Known about the structure:
By secondary structure, this protein is of the alpha+beta class. It has helices at residues 49-67, 109-117, 121-128, 137-147, 151-156, 165-174, 181-184, 199-205, 240-247, 305-313, 323-328, 368-394, 411-421, 433-445, 452-458, 471-488, and strands at residues 5-11, 15-21, 27-34, 46-47, 74-81, 87-90, 100-101, 160-163, 178-180, 190-191, 196-197, 214-216, 219-225, 232-239, 256-260, 264-271, 282-289, 292-301, 338-340, 358-360, 401-404, 425-428, 461-465. It is globular.
Amino acid sequence: MDKRYVLAFDQGTTSSRSLLFTRDGAIAAVSQQEFEQIYPRPGWVEHNPVTIWETQIATAREVMAKAGATPDDIAAVGITNQRETAVVWERATGKPIHNAIVWQCRRTTEICEQLKADGLEQEFRARTGLVVDAYFSGTKVNWLLDHVDGARAQAEHGELCFGTIDSWLLFNLTGRHITDYSNASRTLLYNIYERRWDPVLLDALGIPESMLPEVVPTSEVYAETTALGGSIPVASMVGDQQAALFGQAAFNVKDSKNTYGTGCFLLINTGSEPVPSEHGLLTTIGWGIGGEVEYAMEGSVFIAGAVVQWLRDELKLISSAAESEAIAAEVPDSNGVYLVPAFTGLGAPWWDMRARGTITGLTRGSNRAHIVRAALESISFQIGDVARTMKKDFGEDMTELRVDGGASANNLLMQHQADVLGVPVVRGETLETTALGAAYLAGLAVGFWSDKDEIRKVWKEDRRFLPQWSEDQRQQALAGWEDAVRRTRSELG
Length: 493
Ligand code: ADP
């Protein structure tokens, strides 16, 4: 029977989605369901794991119905997921002992402060490539064991399973308790150098090893699922940002991608060796295929598309995000206006959480278009800062930047990005690179695509933005930006 599709599960923070991809990388159908965000207290965020599973499987059934597909048409299922979100469930019953604690949840900030006070920050960083922060799963698991009645005793008796969302979905699909390298590398428990759960870190967080999933390759047939009717192999699990890197066919060292959403996630493929950062960037596993593991360096920008939302919702300078492009294009440049959207502080390489936003360089002639343009340019300048930081740590420049996410549709922004970076910015035909990455990885495991070379050919370019600034222009623009950033720093204010 000829298999026509790979089915990707894209389990995100606000919705569960399912997509069917054809052999030429096109989307045959999409289905999506939003689900409830649970905020028990300010700064706390939870999801109901059962709802996550039910919405995910419901969208899979819907997408198959839309395309008129049966299980026989589907070569494999691939899973990509919101990262770091922690679920703990009973091995015997499959019942969660508590809601999932979402990556955004800040409830374990104090646990992180305690780990730092105990002098453990360096231990964690040197073993996991991450920073000690409430964002990652480890302290969330510690919290669950301490706050759910009887949980610690149950865990010590081997009765509980911990997993990130990939692992939770796979358990429901197949009954196996496993996770992949990319997701394991976001837990704050996994030693990315030795590639094993780290006994020192498990001890520091009081987590019994028996509750951890086995770590398996990112692309491999894990088991067959019958949850969708007939039997279908489940053949990839991959964290969303790493999935996007793979979905952009960024397979070689120095290949990189940036996703322009509410915030930005920039990842560069660093090859078979992890590269530690001296500047607060994250070292992470991209994927493991066969016996090979490839690493990535990751930097994020907190406020990216969010600055466009702010122009629309708070300043009311634009009526839609898309309109920002036409308004910014009314002027040839920002005429010396710089906007630094340090609404929640400054990330890499500044790490100044008390910094707050500013607009500099205003004159009597500054108008709406200059401010809108400066806001868009703040996105590309911030990515430029992260890219330069990566270069300091990695010693290599990216070859080109592949882009996706909602704001990558903005041509003016993409051109400015190419100018700031001095390398080509390349937008692919599909902006659904996260789901596509999971599909590629699953498809590779079952021979739907034969190898990475075939995927490189499947990946199609939409548009390429070439740098147009002279080196002088670039230096001048960066100097203006850095001056504006300096004015937002908390020490000066
Ligand atoms: P997320 O997954 O974080 O919700 P999306 O990938 O859906 O983000 O992108 C939405 C973000 O991109 C919003 O912050 C929005 O303001 C911004 N955005 C969308 N379209 C444009 C555009 N044409 N120009 C600039 N920003 C845009």
